[in-house]
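Allow me, if you will, to draw on your knowledge of protein folds for a short while. The matter concerns a single protein, recorded as an amino acid sequence and a row of backbone structure tokens. Kindly check, if you would, that the fold set down in the tokens agrees with what the sequence suggests. You will find the record immediately after this paragraph.
***
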Amino acid sequence: MLANPILDFGVDKAVVQYAGSDLQRPECILAERDGTLWAADARGGVVRIGPDGGQQIITQKRSTSFAGAPSEAARYLEGTLPNGLAFAANGDILVSNFGTDRLEIMTREGDTRVLADNIDGLPIGKVNFVLRDSRNRIWITVSTRVKNWMHALRTDLTDGYLARYDDGDIRIVADGFRFTNEIRFDAKEEFLYVVETAGGCITRLRIDERGVPSDREVFGPRRLGKGAWPDGIAFDSYGNLWGTLVYSDQLFILTPKGDLRILLDEGDPEQLDALEQAFFRNNVTEDILFRTGRGIAPWMASVTFGGPDLRRVYVGSLKGTRIPYFRSPIAGLPMVHWNESIAGS
């Protein structure tokens, strides 16, 4: 292989640009070939940002619970909170709703229906992320069954799980994760990489032809350094795994060998120390948690490759109101929808 171009790269904030404005909780971002972006939005749907910069909120019923919440905690705990997004094969938008605890599907005009809200006869829990693979299988992560997800930010809770949705049937395929978050397949769809936010690490599982996982192992360091609360991940075409550390506002990569490199560090050391001490005591409070978050994408939550050559990196966040982006030295790995032709997209 040629030398890894990421090893000599660092994010220069002086050249960072921004897309969108007045967004609410743009946690996850989808990019299309024509330059259109779709960002999750706490008003109950998505914001479509066109190639010309024009934007449109699309939601079945506009929610004001996020902007009008009486407290920071209520803002991130109550109401509809679209989180992870993926395109269905027909161009509809799969939504993992972290507020309503449901897997939903929404047309590009806003018509919405629920795909799943329970599993094995029990409430599904905090649905975090959704991913469609090349075989049109839908994978979802559930972070925890604890209703107040802040109470699940502890070292000893392993109630997160990975599920697969097929033609109306949803089943758990792997469990015992510490706050399951984003997932991605490698280029061959041989391994599925799973973020464990409270575990401070990335786990991967081999996926066979039937979609059955095996050979579970930690990829890279067993803990991604100080302030290691990983959230979103994405592969580039070289095989580097890009990721975010949400409360410490760091952007990192793991090389194909699993070596860790920090590309951008926006965190507040003092607030990070306080949160880390509380976390290892299993005593994270709302007051300590919400003091964190600053920089170009406060509570940095996701990474998306886009642009005509897939070298534009968009960073999603939980506290931001716009989407920062910059050029990567290497193209991203195309997501399954990238080469699909969707009428009217």
